[in-house]
Amino acid sequence: MAEVNESAEILRGLVEDPKALYAAHIALEDELVMMRDSRMWLGMPANGLVIRERDGSESDIIRIGTREAVRRALVAIADFLERDNDNNSKNA
């Protein structure tokens, strides 16, 4: 149970880390742009993320389902933390 509480505390801390959130934001946005420009989408989820067309018009194509978006955001945050840790180790 202590491990679950530690994990929850770490995740809550990440919510307050603007750099980690920015890393997730950019990773998801870049993926959405790439998918839009390639005319791709992942399956047919009932809910998920959409991105406007290049010309700014609205789109009704769900590019990534919410579960996949959360997974990708967490991976992006983990990657950011590893890079940040590597950079801090090199500067120490």
Termini separation comes to: 34 Å
Q: Strand content of the residues, in percent? A: under 5%
Class inferred from helices and paired strands:
mainly alpha
Contiguous runs where pLDDT drops below 50 for at least 5 residues: none
Radius of gyration, CA atoms, in whole angstroms: 16 Å
**Coarse shape:** globular
Mean pLDDT: 89
Q: Encode the helix/strand succession as letters.
A: HHEEH
Helix content: 55-70%
Major sheet description:
2 strands, antiparallel
Strand order of the largest sheet: 1-2
Number of helices, counting only DSSP H or I runs of 4 residues or more: 3
The count of strands amounts to: 2
What key phrases describe this protein's structure?
two-stranded antiparallel sheet, mainly alpha, 3 helices, 92 residues, 65% helix
Descriptive report:
The chain is mostly helical. It has a domain at 19-81. It has three helices and two strands; from the N terminus they run ααββα. The protein has helices at residues 2-15, 18-37, 66-91, and strands spanning 48-49, 64-65. The protein has a two-stranded antiparallel ribbon. The protein is globular, with a radius of gyration of 16 Å. It starts with a helix and ends with a helix.
What would a concise description of this structure say?
This protein has 92 residues and is mostly helical.
SSE layout:
Blueprint: H1 2-15, H2 18-37, E1 48-49, E2 64-65, H3 66-91
Antiparallel strand pairs: 1-2
Helix pairs in contact: 2-3
